[in-house]
Amino acid sequence: EFMQASWDVEEVQAKGIQHLASFVKEKSAFPHLLTCTEVITLAMKTHIDSLDLQVEGCTLLLEILSQALEQGVMMALDESVASCLLHTVRKHSENEEFLSMLCTLLMMVSASEVAVENLRRVGIIPDLLSILRRFLHNDKICFSCCAVLWSLAVSENNADQAVLESALPVTSAVLQEHLQNGVVAESACSALWALALQGCLTDSDYEPTAALLLDALRMNPERALLVKNGCLALASLVRLSETAALAILLDSKGSGIELIKDEYHLHLHEPGVAEALCLLMNEMVQYDEVMLDMRSQKVEKLLCEIKLQFPFS
What we know:
Layout (H helix, E strand, L loop, with lengths): L9 H12 L8 H5 L2 H10 L4 H20 L8 H13 L4 H14 L3 H9 L3 H10 L4 H16 L6 H5 L1 H11 L4 H16 L8 H14 L4 H17 L1 H8 L6 H11 L4 H14 L3 H9 L2 H11 L4
Helix pairs in contact: 1-4, 3-4, 3-5, 4-6, 5-7, 6-9, 8-9, 8-11, 9-12, 11-12, 12-14, 13-14, 13-15, 14-15, 14-17
């Protein structure tokens, strides 16, 4: 009430946020803090020029969201809150350190379908792509933005086809830049999978995207989730074009089939990986020429192994 009575006074909003922040560690205060997100974001929007207030507001929202996720509480931020966050993104689009924090916040928010829908409505995708282009070197920003892109691209009410198509080169650039950073590469592979599912690729994209995904698998063989999402992304590409299947077979850095075998043996006890590999192979055998090649590389032996390993799946 104190904050709402004096929206225009920056000091009141700053003191209010600081006072709310003092309750963060008290478990009994958590349900009440959940009701304050709109007040905090509105204070940030009203005093958008004050970087200090933006940082304090964003820090507090991150604390509240972290606790919510820990307790399994889904925070569905409404459209006005999403709009406030977008205003903040645009106003401070040059401030790398603050954007890193803000993108983490957006990633946590995107765990909720309602929040994703509201972020989509306010038109956040072009801003995410712009941030990625500008801060391609920043692993935290790339990780968070790719995670938000994934959530936006797989959302059921997707009306952003044209905008999403422009996301492919940027997402590929992120993966290329951070191939050796498993956490970022994992996030970028997920985003590419979502873009492939939405049919955001053209004929000239299939081969280079497949090669890039194979590179990610080679560079991060031990990361089960990356392997799984990378294979699902490849399966989506192969479903769309035989060019992608041939790119896997004839990759200049070595046979994609041998890579698939190696990944399976490395993750023998991961049903999710095995399932993704089977899905990829199932898409590949739809093409006669590809299937003949797979036979010559003894894929049947691998499939029998998988069947013995997971007889009840």
